[in-house]
Amino acid sequence: MLLYNIFRFGFALVFVGLHAALMAGLYMEWKRDKRARFNPAAVSWMPKVTVIIPVHNESSRMEGIFRSLETQDYPEAEFIFIDDRSSDESAQLISAFLKNKPSMRLISLTENPGFNHKQFALARGIEVSSGEFFLFTDADCEIPQGWIAAMVKRMADKKVGAAIGPVLKRSGGQGFFHLYQCFEHGVRFMYLAGSTGLGAAGGGFGNNLILRRASLEAVGGYESIPPSPTEDAALVSRIRACSDFQIRAALGPDVHVITKGELGWKDFINQTLRWNNGGLFSPDFSTRLNFGFLMVTISMGILAIPFLPFFPSIWPLPAAVILSMTADTIATLGLFGVSLPKKGPAYILQLLFTPVYFTFLTIIGFCGIKPEWKGSKM
């Protein structure tokens, strides 16, 4: 009985303690980001930036990036689109957009032998770039006005090698599914920012990421990143683990990148499984350990629920999960509410569903289910 009590209450204390530590890291990162946003010394600092945008069959989703690129007024920027073997009209649309824009260019790939096709395509863009910094986004994203300058501010400290920014989804309709996509994206970045604040950055959204060229060179270049279904997370982990540069998280509304949501559960599960597997099977040991521990403990708490009628004494396991998810929800809405749908009490259902969904992804990930990316198994 003593060992059983130690297990059930120890689990709850460890799980809640872990989330308390993440909330502390999130607060520290929020304070750092606020100082970077309003640093007077960074206002007139204008290093050259190369914005790299990979494209693969995005002809129906590029209107947002075209529109928002027109709002960028950063004087020292070049823009490189990489068309990765698109079979639709992506290349033609980009070419039309680039007319009379000398700072923008298009690279077209006819083959891509990379394990991770996106990583290979991005490496081709980096090869021909001239910026001191690389800033990445995707063709289906919409970036805020002044985004380039805002991300550059986060790099004013020369010890910072990379800054990860939030990517939030625009609701594509009414109902639970569309709201959940928006909420889930915010929760994921909240976890990323919290771990970054604790010095354990192990991920990031590659469609809102800025890198110092020197930090990439310090780890052997982009193609030195070990094979992973999430090349952006593997890159952030490698810079943290294999260089003297720091990783920071950008949190302010001036860097909220918006992307379109998936159309149905099948595509959404495939997308989130890729991210989850990227953490569970990351080439970086500390990322595997931290992310795996978090996902396994969440799963233990959720899997205990069906047994509550038979073993009511295991209540601390699910209670710890619900308590921690409540704190996560408050933090997510506090940080990103300005860019999330205004749905009020509907977020209660989201916070209850999130640990169940994370448990589902973790189980199928450990069962060897592999996601697809752009039609290829990862």
UniProtKB/TrEMBL annotation:
The chain crosses the membrane at residues 6-28, 291-311, 317-340, 347-369. Keywords: Cell membrane, Glycosyltransferase, Membrane, Transferase, Transmembrane, Transmembrane helix. One of its GO terms (cellular component) is plasma membrane. Its main location: membrane. InterPro entries: Glyco_trans_2-like, Nucleotide-diphossugar_trans. It comes from the Bacteria. One of its GO terms (molecular function) is glycosyltransferase activity. Residues 50-218 form the Glycosyltransferase 2-like domain. This is Glycosyltransferase, group 2 family. The lineage of its organism: Bacteria, Pseudomonadati, Spirochaetota, Spirochaetia, Spirochaetales.
